[in-house]
Give the backbone structure.
Amino acid sequence: MNEHSPSGAGVTVAAAPTEVFPPTLREVLLRPWWLGMLGLALVIAGVFAWLGQWQLGSAIDTDPPPPGMNEQVRPLAEVTSPGDYLAEPLVGQMVQASGRWIPGDFLIVASRFNDGDEGYWVTGQLRLDTATTGTDQPASLAVAVGWTPTRTAAVAAVDELEAAVAADPDATVALTGRLISDEGPGLPPAGADPQTMTRMSPAALLGQWHDTDGLDVYRAYLTSAEPLGGLEKIHSPAPDEGSTVNWLNIFYAAEWAVFAGFAFYMWYRLGRDAWEKEVEALEEEAAGTPERGDGTGTATVG
C-alpha cells in the first residue's frame, strides 16, 4: 500500500508536543531547599535584631550621674585605682589625695594652653600615703602643679620645688584637684631635645621618674587646684554635662536593623536568581527541540 492508502500505512505524523510550563517564583521559593534557607535567614536576622536591641539599650543612660557630681570632692580611692582607665563619667572629677614629693621628679611639659595662652606645665611625682590608697603597696600619681607662659619661669619653679623637697623630703602634702585621663605619649617636636614632652602622659613621665621599683602608677593625672612654686593656676574647668543619649550606639543599632533586613533580601535575591536560571533553561530547551526530520518529537504510523 502506497503513501496515499486510506489505511495510512507508511505515513509519518508529527507527535503532539507536550507543553512544559515554567514554575513561578512563588513555587520555587516554597521548595524545601529555599524554605530551609529562609529559616537560616530568620536565625541570622534574629541575631542581628538582638544585637540592635542591645546597642539601643546601651544608647540611653538610664542612670546618669547627677548634675554637679564632678564638683563634689571625693577621695581618690573611691574614683579610680592604679592602672585603671578613668571611666567617662568620672573624667574631671574633683578628688583629694595626700603623699610626699619624690626628689628629682619635677618635670616640664611644653605646649600647654591655659585659657588660650600657650605655655608650660610643671609636674611632679606624688608618692601617695596609705591613707589615700588604702594599701601598703607603693603607688604614685602624676600631678600638674601649675602653669607658666615661659620656659625660664618653669625652670625656676622646678628649682624652687626641688629645694623645698630637699629641705624636708618626708613632708606630707594634701592636694585637691581635677582628675584627667591620660593623653598618651607623643613624639617631641623636630629638632627638640628627645626628652621634651608635649603631652601629659603618666606613662611618659614614668620613664623619667626615680624610685619606681615595684611601683603602681595611676593612669589618670591630677591638675592641682592650688598652684605651687610661684606658678599660675591651671585653667581646668568642669566638664560639660554629657547627654544621656549616645547617638553613636543608636547609629550602630540602625546598622544592625539594616543587616537583619539584608539577610531576607539575600534569601529573596538568591531564590529569584535560581528561578530565573531555571526558567531560562526551560525556554532554551523548548527552543532547541526540533519538530521533525531526525525522528525526535515525531511518531511513525504503520
Remarks:
- The chain has seven helices and nine strands.
- The chain has two domains: 20-58+247-300, 69-224.
- Residues 292-302 have pLDDT under 50 and may be disordered.
- The longest strand covers residues 117-128.
